[in-house]
Amino acid sequence: MSSIPPKVRIVEVGPRxxxxxxxxxxxxxxxxxxxxxxxxxxxxxxxxxSFVSPKWVPQMADATDVYTAIQKKPGVxxxxxxxxxxxxxxxxxxxxxxIAVFTAASEAFNRKNINASIAExxxxxxxxxxRAKADRVAVRGYVxxxxxxxxxxxxxxxxxxxxxxxxxxxxxxxxxxxDTIGIGTPAKARAMLAAVxxxxxxxxxxxxxxxxxxxxxxxxxxxxxxxxxxxxxxVSGVGGCPYARGASGNVxxxxxxxxxxxxxIETGIDLDRLIExxxxxxxxxxxxxxxxxxxxAA
Length: 298
Ligand code: HMG
Ligand code: MG
Hints:
Blueprint: E1 9-12, H1 14-20, H2 28-39, E2 45-46, E3 49-50, H3 63-69, E4 80-81, H4 85-93, E5 98-104, H5 107-114, H6 118-134, E6 138-144, H7 157-170, E7 174-179, H8 186-199, E8 205-209, H9 216-224, E9 230-233, H10 253-262, H11 271-284, H12 292-296
Parallel strand pairs: 1-2, 1-9, 3-4, 4-5, 5-6, 6-7, 7-8, 8-9
The chain binds 3-hydroxy-3-methylglutaryl-coenzyme A and magnesium ion.
Magnesium ion (MG) binds next to loops.
């Protein structure tokens, strides 16, 4: 039986997941303008940047400057990625109110991405989450490689369940399940989400699809039918993890919003403004617009 939610919250990850994989350093003012433009579209959550090691991801070295300069619109949340206590401290220095910690369902990917085993990463998050709780900072958790790993291959749903359950038990209010390399297909996506939802309430789950093989919208629809109500996406389909070989862009926010609105699902987003922002960003990055809806619109 279908239990498609009447409303969906989009978590716009373009400024972080979208830009982190760009080879040329995007000027800080462009990042700031991108977030300010996104804030005017009706989005409620915009992942702004990440306080990771600049040696690992030079593109995010300006996290402090970006976060400080963006106009924080009331009612909009601006989470940032934090890999460890050092990142948490940098984020708090500029008043961040929501963070996201990130690990994976595959040992091989996690080692490449954050230089830790899954168990070590969870240990690393423990003091971060404790500090966040004390500071009343909300914590989201990511699980990567939920439908396959570029290094290890198959990832059993039981491994995803274990990591998602651990993050939820540690205090993450929401767990985002990431198909990092866009390898999944709808039946697999549905089976993975159903398995996780046995252990973590659906209301605390989000889906995060990269569109490497053109499967993202189909996977999203399959997951919507199971009742998931939060979708991560990136304006103009920018994105990819620098430590996931072969990863390409996130599913485009414009395409997701177009599909949701077409199904009568509310998002609170002004699609025309989002399309305009995607076009503006594509011009700034001098790259083809990765949104089909953005290209088709008159
Ligand atoms: P490490 O090298 O093991 O850590 O990296 P370390 O503690 O030895 O630190 C190395 C150097 O970095 C030191 O500097 C630290 O001070 C510095 P040095 O002493 O050599 O001068 N450092 C930092 N500087 C600033 N902020 C920090 C920080 N931490 C250390 N927070 C570490 C471990 C986790 C730091 C590193 O691996 C890292 O930063 N990784 C991040 C990789 C990343 O950002 N990947 C992309 C995001 S995840 C993703 O895209 C997937 C997702 O979208 C979902 C999906 O699609 O699946 C979320
Ligand atoms: Mg991602």
